[in-house]
Inverse folding.
């Protein structure tokens, strides 16, 4: 680790300002080297913060256990601070920026005593890409440094690209746990919940985070920069920063299709990003599993990059059945957080392929299958380089991005929404994305079930007013014109009355994607329904798939009365946006109402 130099005056002044406020024992500029990464992890093992896993089973991999109070994204402690409260909108927590800065400066004062202050220059996206952005995170957490090594491009090359006057997004983070002389450190230091703040100042492109060392609360390139701040920048600069996977599909004739897809949590997003098609001759390659940044290219088409360099995935439920490519991606060089530790020095979690008879759970206690608690935390994570994914696309780091052919939205719905339908046009597609919803309970068939509206799967991540965000999508459609991608909506989760899944999912979802590609090519027609275009009989390839005809009919059923109730629920949700609800969305709501009325 070396003291990296730069002549960027604004950056140097900011680093000095933070040093004077936080009072660390020393300052280190990270260089992004393997030596630096290995040294930090070796130090973490030596101090008890991390466990090195069995090198034969999981080479160069480590397990961290967080404090039980610091295990997930803290939406109720996440703030959008704008001068005008209305600009944050009803879906965000708002605090006046002056008030928030005053509160947080008091917390930051002396917060890094006894610790090292790390300066992390990082690039979101390939260095030098016209779609990429540069950030600099200051942190006192070695855990953050090693995770940022994986999740972003870090170090001297970023500073060289930044030059002496380039634009960067300042990201200040502290775990909020200063050390007095001689005071022993904790394995996972953090502040009490009431002192945790994840603060965004979109009008300044500024991020401040205090008190949490976990995930997106601390890895500030993740949701904070890549979505909340980037979505605000995208709105003002005319591009899109979205919570979307990016996938390349290649058909047997060699034609490539690029998909950007948005799903709420627990709706199969990572599984689709690493799809293994079951249809002979089709190939899928992952470009990104979580975030897409998209600009209109010189050819008038929208082009996307994955701004991240790694996967920060939810571990529980990931298995060779649900996502074999993810399992292969984490065989080595991976950081695990809040997983269980097996007796042979490997990791384990609920939903893994093999059973576990004994482990040390995520809290550090003995665990057996008879225990009354989970071995791994439900939000346990893995951090792995994207380059390790066996189906990573060779062009995943193309600085120009890939031209998107279609957008896909979806949600977890046991009834009402069919397996797949296509928007009539781009404006209708924006309506589909804006009205996306997912069931909030596992008991999806309960009479009292509720839906969570989640426009574009972005509700926790829109860095400004959600009504303005939806309007921005409509404006992007106007700019794209005839070159706008086709838009589809999917629901892998429909059930029958007994609660049985009607669609097998996983690799079989490639059958639905094949139909979409054939629609984009103009090879096949479709049936017009009140909600959009749907497959004709025989056009959705189910060859070799064991599915009953009545099940398939139910998967494709479009029932008017449930759809009317769904539309009413969406309208109630949109009402909170008031006069910032785009007129074009009102037009689409009226058109949908009229189509349902005409259908009976």
């Amino acid at each position: 680790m070396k003291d990296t130099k730069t002549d960027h005056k604004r950056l140097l002044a900011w680093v000095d300002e933070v040093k004077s406020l936080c009072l660390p024992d020393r300052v280190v500029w990270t260089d992004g080297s393997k030596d630096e990464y290995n040294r930090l992890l070796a130090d973490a093992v030596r101090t008890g913060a991390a466990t090195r896993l069995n090198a034969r089973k999981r080479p160069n991999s480590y397990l961290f256990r967080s404090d039980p109070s610091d295990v997930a994204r803290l939406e109720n402690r996440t703030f959008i601070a704008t001068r005008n409260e209305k600009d944050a909108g009803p879906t965000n927590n708002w605090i006046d920026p002056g008030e928030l800065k005053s509160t947080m400066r008091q917390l930051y004062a002396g917060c890094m005593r006894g610790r090292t202050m790390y300066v992390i220059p990082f690039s979101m996206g390939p260095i030098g890409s016209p779609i990429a952005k540069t950030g600099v995170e200051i942190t006192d957490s070695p855990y953050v440094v090693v995770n940022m090594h994986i999740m972003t491009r870090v170090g001297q090359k970023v500073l060289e690209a930044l030059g002496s006057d380039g634009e960067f997004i300042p990201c200040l983070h502290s775990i909020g746990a200063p050390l007095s002389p001689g005071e022993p450190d904790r394995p996972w230091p953090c502040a009490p919940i009431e002192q945790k703040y994840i603060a965004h100042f979109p009008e300044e492109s500024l991020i401040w985070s205090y008190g949490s060392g976990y995930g997106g609360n601390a890895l500030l390139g993740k949701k904070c920069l890549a979505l909340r701040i980037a979505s605000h920048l995208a709105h003002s600069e005319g591009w899109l920063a979205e919570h979307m996977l990016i996938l390349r599909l290649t058909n047997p004739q060699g034609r490539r299709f690029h998909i950007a897809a948005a799903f709420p949590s627990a709706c199969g997003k990572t599984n689709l990003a690493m799809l293994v098609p079951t249809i002979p001759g089709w190939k899928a390659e992952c470009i990104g599993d979580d975030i897409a940044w998209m600009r209109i290219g010189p050819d008038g088409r929208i082009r996307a990059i994955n701004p991240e360099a790694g996967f920060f995935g939810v571990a529980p439920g990931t298995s060779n059945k649900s996502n074999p490519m993810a399992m292969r991606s984490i065989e080595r060089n991976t950081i695990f957080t809040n997983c269980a530790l097996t007796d042979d020095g490997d990791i384990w979690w609920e939903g893994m392929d093999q059973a576990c008879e004994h482990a040390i759970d995520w809290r550090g206690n003995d665990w057996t299958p008879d225990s009354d608690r989970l071995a791994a935390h439900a939000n346990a994570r893995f951090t792995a380089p994207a380059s390790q994914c066996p189906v990573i696309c060779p062009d995943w780091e193309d600085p120009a991005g890939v031209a998107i052919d279609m957008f896909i939205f979806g949600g977890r719905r046991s009834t009402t929404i069919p397996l797949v339908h296509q928007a009539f046009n781009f404006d209708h597609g924006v309506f589909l994305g804006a009205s996306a919803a997912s069931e909030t309970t596992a008991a999806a068939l309960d009479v009292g079930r509720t839906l969570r509206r989640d426009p574009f799967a972005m509700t926790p991540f829109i860095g400004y007013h959600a009504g303005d965000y939806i309007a921005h999508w409509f404006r992007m459609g106007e700019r794209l014109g005839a070159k706008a991608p086709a838009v589809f909506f999917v629901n892998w989760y429909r059930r029958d009355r007994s609660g049985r899944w009607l669609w097998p999912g996983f690799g079989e979802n490639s059958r639905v994607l094949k139909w979409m590609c054939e629609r984009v090519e103009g090879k096949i027609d479709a049936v017009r329904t009140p909600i959009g275009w749907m497959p004709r009989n025989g056009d959705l390839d189910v060859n070799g798939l064991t599915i009953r005809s009545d099940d398939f009919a139910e998967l494709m059923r479009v029932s008017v009365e449930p759809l009317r109730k769904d539309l009413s629920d969406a309208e109630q949700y949109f009402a909170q946006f008031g006069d910032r609800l785009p007129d074009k969305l009102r037009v689409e709501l009226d058109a949908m109402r009229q189509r349902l009325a005409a259908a009976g």
About this structure: The chain has three domains: 9-54+71-238, 244-289+405-598, 310-387. Residues 244-289+405-598 form a domain with the Phosphoenolpyruvate Carboxykinase; domain 3 fold (CATH 3.90.228.20). Residues 441-448 have pLDDT under 50 and may be disordered. The longest helix spans residues 221-237.
